[in-house]
Amino acid sequence: RWIKFEEKVEEGGERWSAPHIPALPLHSLFQLRTCLQKGTVLLDLDASSFKEIIDQALLGHPEEAELQPQLREHLAALLLRQPQHQPTRSLLQLLAELSSSPCRGRLDTWQGGWPQGCPTGHPSSTATSPGQYPRWPLRNRFKRKVPPGAEAAHVAVGEVEFLEKPFTAFIRLRRGVALGSLAEVALPSRFIFILLGPRAKVKAYHEVGRAMATLLTDELFQRVAWKAEHREDLITGMEAFLDELTVLPPGKWDPNVHIPPPSCLLSAHRRTTAPMPSRQPHGNGDMTAATDRAGLGHSCSREELERTGRLFGGLLQDIRRKAPWYGSDFSDALHPQCLSAVLYIYLATVTNAITFGGMLGDATANMQGVLESFLGTAFAGFIFCLFSGQPLTILSSTGPMLVFERLLFSFSQDHGLDYLEFRLWIGLWVAFFGVVLVATEASHLVRYFTRFTEEGFCALISLIFIYDSLKKMLSLADTFPINWQYRLDNVTSNSCICNLSNPCEPKQLWGWYSSCSRAGCGGPVVSVHDPSSSPVLSPQPPTATAGLSRTQCLSQGGHLLGPGCQYVPDVTLISFLLFGGTFLSCTMLKDFRSSCYFPTGVRKLVSDFAIILAILASCAIDAALGLETPKLLVPSELKPTNPARGWIILPFGANPWWVCLVSALPAVLVTILIFMDQQITAVILNRREYKLQKGAGFHLDLLCVSLLMVVTSITGLPWYVSATVISLAHMESLRKESASSAPGEHPEFLGIR
């Protein structure tokens, strides 16, 4: 059967194969051309049943090959036999059909019985009925793959004993006629091709039938078949098909290997307008690529980036462009797809806020941490979504911002400046510079950004996060050193002594026996040993039974002595295992969308929530092990992560007065960084290939980011800018695609909701 690609019944007859591009013997096409030249051709036949069609086809045979009455009766009886189809329904459906339908018995293909029906497609699949065949009683799931408005074509080929010469007929009906269960699904039928011949050539007949089915699924030949008035028109259409044919030499490939459908098909228009291969200029495709680029135009050469020559002219245009669509942003969100997108983006921003908050806390001594990252993400995202020109954009803290925060904190520490106050003045200057850029319509410069610039900046953002994560993991080896020298046989030699300055008082440390020693104390000193081994004592055994932990020992001014004091579980190793496990499981779950397990909806759901599922799985493993792995520092109440700071940052008091002026210099660098990050993300999201209908808002978006800089600087929250990766994920979760698609065909992309 064919819709756009061929499907075969696999060996054993249990199921259909995967859709594939049909590979035809060249000789079968020449034989098909002969059949069309010498066989029966009926165009615009007016018939309402399959019996009428067969009668007309048998009567319309050429005079030189006119059939005898008895032979005509044999052929009519054969062609009007009840067809049987490859079952594509569940066992329960099959039992119901067998109990309610007279269509019983097994399919005899090529065995002298009913010749095999090959549903092809106009863009379609099948349906027809001799006499009047009963309709299938239950809905066939295959019909959901058929595009709306499709009609069926039928190809019946086989061998019979009573024929000495082949009988062929090509029939086009004047109007589509429902022929019952002749086809696999109930569709109006338009084309019928019949080829019956004597025995010993069944393979050749089969290939000719496949060639006709392939022709009927070709868009250009379909047009010819629809409009043909004479036999010669069909021959001309087939000659045009042969002109485009590509032949593979024998022995250089395996004909049994199915060629999968391509991800992108050449349209019929481009096939008719494209020059022949011999006329194309050589040069590694440079000329062709240049032509394609010229036809498509720059992705952002649109009215959003045209200069008006007036102060805030571009901003006013963005507002006028946004206003008519503002209400639809809320009404469009009532679609169920948006609910899953909201949940997906919430989890994506939460995981990003956790990651960035943890790194920012390490870089700034918790002056900004996870809680500040959470609050800033919520506030900035809320304001930006309501008032920006492109609310599909998701704000987040990015890698370049993390690098700048780390450098600014180090500079402040080295020069005795208050970090948050210094940062406040930088943020105010950045906001001022941003408003100036909006007023002068500087966003029109993004039209000169190339694809190389866009991809390079995205790679920089990703590499910064990758570098920081690896650096953080490697630093664990300093805090939790790996016990390379640990041997199980040497457990009895591990000792740890708590040395205090107070009077000697034996204690117990970590389940190990310990005592304190003091300069000048005449009492015995007891070494610490594993309780599982015999304690090695000085002249007197310890008399203390009270426990003294490591923290208590250090808080009382003592210090630990002995090789056993440095022993810690291999926290670093388990952290690396969790680190790698999270990444690998996330990658595998992301690729689950293209796997062959579970229905499409389940695969898409797992792929969308891959990040949060991977994190939850690793956290569950960590909790089950119970090791003291490093955790994020998150306050249990709504207060700053670092208790030394408040929620409002005062502009004066901690730093000299001239800091407010000097801050303009680093602010220029931050402005360039934010402008590049924001506008490159906007350019990527507003490409023509995404088919956005509501337009962009480059100037309005930059104004929103600039004003948010004021609020986040005053409150000591992280700075936010458009996040490319999360924004693209947001776009992906709101894709609109065609509901039905042929087997093997990718759903048509309709745009972004």
UniProtKB/TrEMBL annotation:
Report the locations given in the UniProt record.
Basolateral cell membrane; Membrane
Under the GO molecular function aspect, what terms does this record hold?
monoatomic anion transmembrane transporter activity; sodium:bicarbonate symporter activity; solute:inorganic anion antiporter activity
Question: Where exactly are the transmembrane stretches of this chain?
Answer: 341-361, 373-402, 422-440, 609-627, 647-675, 696-721
Q: Which Pfam families does the protein's record reference?
A: Band_3_cyto, HCO3_cotransp
Q: What cellular component GO annotations does this protein have?
A: basolateral plasma membrane
Q: Which UniProt keywords apply?
A: Cell membrane, Ion transport, Membrane, Transmembrane, Transmembrane helix, Transport
Stretches assigned to the Bicarbonate transporter-like transmembrane domain:
310-753
InterPro entries hit by this protein:
Band3_cytoplasmic_dom, HCO3_transpt-like_TM_dom, HCO3_transpt_euk, Na/HCO3_transpt, PTrfase/Anion_transptr
Q: Is Membrane among this UniProt entry's keywords? A: yes
- One GO process term, biological-process aspect: regulation of intracellular pH
Residues annotated as domain Band 3 cytoplasmic: 1-255
Membrane-protein topology = Multi-pass membrane protein
* Annotated coiled-coil segments of the chain: none
Task: Decide whether keyword Protein transport is in the record.
Answer: no
| PANTHER family per record | ANION EXCHANGE PROTEIN, ANION EXCHANGE PROTEIN 4
Q: Which NCBIfam families match?
A: ae (TIGR00834)
Q: Which family does it belong to?
A: Belongs to the anion exchanger (TC 2.A.31) family.
Protein's UniProt name: Anion exchange protein
Origin species: Brachypteracias leptosomus
